[in-house]
Amino acid sequence: MFRSSEFALDRRPSLRWPVNRFGIRLAGDKKELPAVNAPLSRLDATNTDRHKKRQVGLTEGPTSARPFGRMDSAGAHPPFPRQTRRMVFAEFEEKTYEIAYDIELSRGGGVTPWAPGQVLEHLVGFDAAADPDASHPLWRVLGASRPKGLVLLPDHWIAPSGRRPTSRQLPSNPISFLVQFKRPEFIRSHAGKQWKLWGTPYFRFKVDAAQQRTLKRLETNTAGEAIVRYASPAFSTNAAMDVARWDGKVIVSSGHVAPTTMAGHSAWTYVSAGAAGRPNPTGEEHRFDRLSDLFREPDDYEKPQPLGARSEVATVDAIKSHVEVLAGAAMTREPHLRRVVDEWRRELLREGVAPGMVNSVGQFAAVQSITARLGASWWILDREALIHQ
């Protein structure tokens, strides 16, 4: 399409001096302009008429009636918007934050976590101190083909520290921590919708409706067995991220909010971690907990029943029961996930894996698949250790 911001034209082939968008003639030879069949807009006709008057010295007023902006046969477009710093997304990607958080958590992070892959090792009887040969069930489980959408191993299934606990070190009274990471926006303008609530620059993240429904369902159906939270940092620049990673303060600089708190809302705003936060302008104020705050209410946890001397059988049974509850919640209202898990169970049976192990590993895969689909992280914590910390 020919742009009249480059030349003043009367839409007919003719010789004209090239002019800029302000109607000032440019140096150079006359050029033949192409014919354009599009009808003249009112503004283009006005500009052409002014150009003709200018040639005989009759032009009045400004040298050009053309506004600043783009022009075409449909008329004037509004000027290009200027860059604004009133609202900016965090400079780092959501995945960068997730990895930094997970690595710090795997090294301690104020609690003692176990990655799901370490639990998987014990569900299939893999002793971390041994090197199983090719006939070990672990290789049959890992080698069996899996349907699309079924995930077995998480990204961080072995902690970066190299810590791989024995069965006696695994939690005998486990509780899961499911965390969905969010990249914040930083709002520094009075024009921000929630500025009146804070009166100072603040952070905000938005939630996806489908993701919110799934997380809320998991939180509701795993009450007492899992802590499900959104996590978001109280910083937004790459420099702040680098400092937090170097100092080991990614987690302490992050706040956590429950999906049930976000029910009926699409955004969460806050100023800092460990202080107040609000879901949307009309939401009630809630504490934006740090990770350590989530485990300060021992009354929320059942006291573990005495098991006598801690045995490998008791520990593995506790893990199996825990994963079974999580799997039931993961597959609620998820017919496709149930179908692919059942398909994979049949494949494991064909590979010669024991039926009891097939059931446990299938449940594990269901939990890992739903968290992978959400982009969340799944960690196992020791309930008993949390009570006494």
Describe it for me?
The chain is α+β, with helices and mostly antiparallel strands and 389 residues long. The chain has 11 helices and 15 strands. It has helices at residues 42-55, 94-106, 116-123, 137-143, 195-198, 209-221, 238-247, 312-330, 335-350, 355-374, 383-388, and strands at 15-16, 31-32, 71-72, 75-76, 87-89, 113-114, 174-181, 185-187, 202-206, 226-233, 254-257, 267-270, 276-279, 286-287, 377-382. The strands form 4 sheets. Strands 5-8-9-12-13-14 form a 6-stranded antiparallel β-sheet, with no helix packed on it. A 5-stranded mixed β-sheet has the order 6-15-7-10-11. Strands 1-2 form a two-stranded antiparallel sheet. Strand 3 and strand 4 (75-76) form a beta hairpin. The chain starts with 14 loop residues before the first strand and ends with a helix. Mean pLDDT is 75; it is low at 1-14, 31-46, 51-84, 156-162 and 298-310.
> How is the main sheet built?
6 strands, antiparallel
Strand content: 5-15%
**Contiguous runs where pLDDT drops below 50 for at least 5 residues:** 1-14, 31-46, 51-84, 156-162, 298-310
The N- to C-terminal Cα distance equals 71 Å
Secondary-structure topology with pairs:
Layout: E1 15-16, E2 31-32, H1 42-55, E3 71-72, E4 75-76, E5 87-89, H2 94-106, E6 113-114, H3 116-123, H4 137-143, E7 174-181, E8 185-187, H5 195-198, E9 202-206, H6 209-221, E10 226-233, H7 238-247, E11 254-257, E12 267-270, E13 276-279, E14 286-287, H8 312-330, H9 335-350, H10 355-374, E15 377-382, H11 383-388
Helix pairs in contact: 8-10, 9-10
